[in-house]
Design goal:
The chain is an alpha+beta fold. A hairpin with a 2-residue loop joins strand 6 and strand 7. The structure holds zinc ion (ZN).
Length: about 160
């Protein structure tokens, strides 16, 4: 089962990997894409296109909001960032490329990554997808799992494993 309490996400994509992934799909590792990926991987956060646009602007990176939108879409399509619905239903982007689920605090909207449980050695989502594909013959997209709740009060112990 899941090992330990402190799950560490896999490293976000490095520049060389990102360039390779894009090139394999006939896409350029353009400056906006590099700037966006670098920011997301440094910050390891879940951001909307607007918040990302603002953060880049504060750093002196001049990208228009529509450039940020467009390139986030390309990067998500290429599998370099993951899109998901945030607390208000808005699109958020995530640089953590490993399969994981989101815990959203219903009071603050804070988003936290959580590792999937393993079933027959596969992460829950991959297991569910292949199970449903076998049952139905459909080609199923990767399931996105979002759980809402409230964190433990400050200072309380980590959940046991
Ligand atoms: Zn995440």
């Amino acid at each position: 089962m899941a090992n330990g309490t402190q799950w560490k996400p896999e490293r976000p994509w490095g520049a060389a990997e990102a360039r390779e992934v894009l090139r394999a799909q006939g896409l350029r590792y353009s400056r906006p894409r590099r700037v966006i990926l670098e920011y997301l991987s440094e910050q390891d956060r879940h951001l909307s296109a607007e918040a990302l646009h603002q953060a880049l602007k504060e750093r002196g990176e001049v990208l228009s909001l529509s450039t940020v939108y467009l390139n986030l879409g390309v990067l998500a399509e290429a599998g370099l960032v993951r899109g998901f619905s945030g607390p208000g239903g808005e699109a958020l982007y995530d640089s953590n490329p490993s399969e994981h689920y989101h815990l959203i605090c219903s009071e603050t909207g804070e988003v936290q990554d959580v590792a999937p449980p393993l079933i027959d050695g596969q992460p829950l989502g991959a297991f569910l997808r292949s199970y449903v594909e076998r049952q139905t013959g459909w080609v199923v997209d990767e399931p996105k799992v979002t759980l809402w709740g409230r964190p433990p009060p400050q200072g309380e112990v980590e959940p046991s494993d």
